[in-house]
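Predict both folds.
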Amino acid sequence: MPFDSLLRDILTSRVYDVARETPLDPAPRLSARLGTSVLLKREDLQPVFSFKIRGAYNRMARLTAEERGRGVIAASAGNHAQGVALSAQHLGMRATIVMPQTTPDIKVDAVRNRGAEVVLAGDTYADAYAFACEEASRTGATFIHPFDDPLVIAGQGTVGDEIVRQRPGELAGIFIPVGGGGLLAGIAAYVKAVLPAVRIIGVEPVDADAMARSLAAGHRVVLERVGLFADGVAVREVGEHTFAIATQTVDEIVLVDNDAICAAIKDVFDDTRTIMEPAGALAVAGLKAWAAAQPDLPPGALVAVLSGANMNFDRLRFVAERAELGEQREALFAVTIPERKGAFREFCTILGPRVITEFNYRLSTRAEAHIFVGVGTRSRADADDVLVRLREGGYRVADLTQSELAKLHVRYMVGGRSRDVTRERVCRFEFPERPGALLQFLDTLGGRWNISLFHYRNHGADIGRVLAGFEVPPEEDAAFDGFLEALGYRSFEDTGEDAYERFLA
């Protein structure tokens, strides 16, 4: 795609028929913490609470009268769907939106409220996309791509135009969330054309890093699977057009985990009193990670694009639990203490005035007890200091702060031991979360091996997480390995993991 043509399309875009010019707001608390000026581009303030309205409308406003008569169809996890639905409503067109069955209800309801027909198909965006393409061929409706269309990219590029016009002074870098790459490509193409010294930094989740892998490989890479927590960027393959633009304009990609995203949601709330969806806070998480890795921050402001605020309320439970860990303000430890009167008080004395956020205990033997404890901390270095103090106090201690097994399951299961279990193999599973999904998962597990442990907790997220133990005789290990491989669900074996051995084995 010629850059001059793209720039012309950005400057002549019709997005403001339905979209608004969003503010570039300062983030005073985050700026003070990082020691540099941080600005937030508030795309969460669009009529559909996401930037997606820009690209969708710019594409649909250019349809011919004949194309408008046939209607449009789109595949989306939610935000593009709302953009297409509102655009169709404004233009008086029929719209069909195909959404994965894992899409949060708030997004499904918002699309229906705009008058669009919603079809739920598959568990991922890839499934919905394939179904929508088939329907487009069958019905003659125009397919509105969520990111890989020149006019969609141009519509998203108007965000870059606004940032350049609204900047209060020098800019050092712009952090942009990346799914298929439409927003990244649009902003990058415009900003590099007018302010080439400004760094363009894409941000992806570690488990949905298609752009990072593609740029490293020099060609588009298709991910085998993607994490669904940040569902707005859960894309297995970036666009052809977007990748071509990114190779020429993007300076680097930063990867962040879910805990960092949850911490960023809290950061945005602290400065704006607004709650972002995970993909919406992705750029802030990347900005923080990038800033922390710089020996000296460059002069000029850092901009993070807040891309959306369509948060499923139920998911706030998970976000609140993980935000403190992501901000390194809580550490989790497994500690062995003597089983006698006064032992708990002695333990707390070593911790001093620190806040204990969680304390789980159950009698193990008459000689000693294993406790699961959460401690309020100020930083990772502070958590390391707690670890040293406990060991100097003579305690056997393990740091579980980075253990997914501990964070997702063990903290809710402490004391769940059984002396009757024989040769247990313990695995974590992830499956698409939707009504009936847990029953389907259990049916798939079958009954060949006795289930000796099971923990499931609905987090309000797009994936269900189960911890299961199976009694597997040694001679059946190979068959069990084959079962896990053929099961069709993502799995991780945690047999022998420290948190399991201390509290559940």
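Second protein follows, with its predicted structure tokens after the sequence.
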Amino acid sequence: MTRFTVLKHDTTTRARLGLLLTRRGPVHTPAFMPVGTQATVKSLTPEEVRATGSEIILANTYHLLLRPGPAVFEAVGDLHTFMRWDGPILTDSGGFQVFSLAKLRTVSEQGVTFRSHIDGSLHELTPETVIDLQLVFGSDIIMPLDDVVGYGEPESRQVEAMQRTHRWLSRALDYFVARTMSSEPASRPLLFGIAQGGFRAERRRTSAEFVASLPLDGIAIGGLSVGEPKQELYALLQASLDPLPEDRPRYLMGVGAPEDLWRAVSLGVDLFDCVLPTRLARHGALFTENGRIDILAVRFKFQREPVDPCCDCYTCQHYSAAYLHHLFRAKELLAYRLATIHNLRFIQNQMARMRTAIAEGTFAQAMEAFLTRYGNAEAGYAGEPLLYEGER
């Protein structure tokens, strides 16, 4: 059974229009996955997330392990039942969260032991237990445990992490096959692999070649957007993509700025996730066609028009920029909800625009038009809040 089909290639870039089939429905690619770290896209109901145009969301194994814990899912039903989301869910393995959040972590060949950032309790993740957890969650796309390194770590540590990630992936694949071999192909979850390699292009290619050699349903590119300069990110991404086959989806983990989405799609990426759109929204940083704005700025106090007159989201169709400015100044909870709806709809509109441009053979022109209009305004934005560690 073919689970991923490239429907069309752009003629002047490497952008691809595709269709990914999961057991809970199709995903039209390029696609962006809103992050529901703890079984919720913060401040929104599943219906509101769906209304932004989102077909698939992401949840996190590390956080769900710690709270509410696998026993809750075994008692009340899988993640879909628990959070009332009926579409596909990808769960990442928790490797990045262990790297960025966990206290006193110890990495060994067996796996990783760590103390919870919540209460200090001791836990262990191995390639096998990560698969078990995601099967309990009912995940539609499962990610294996990987060994993540930060920008600037020693070369020896980068090599070690890549090689260990490969060994862990082989263990995870064997275990996944054993656990799901009795399932019908259409009803089993998908397993992606994660290519690492640190911050050398040759290692990136080596890791991508190894992951591509295995019978996996998709290939993720991890360990980027962790502090490296943007141009280095793009160069390493290109090195990671070059060896990958055409017949499987490519997932760039943890990247979600609008300009980065356009550029990464032009290089051949199909799937994305990132906390950035929702995180920024809760700080009053909103995407518009003319760049990112800070809704708390005094210039919006008397603006009767919506934040973005071009936007078709619920927020822009019903509320003025002045009202959002007031909500944020007053720290009213509705502010976070309306801003999150807007930012997610903006991102999903960009993904839809990309898909249309690929289909029409105009992707390069559409990207140039977006980057010219958005990027010039974005250069003047000063209020960029830091990401919460452990979120993507």
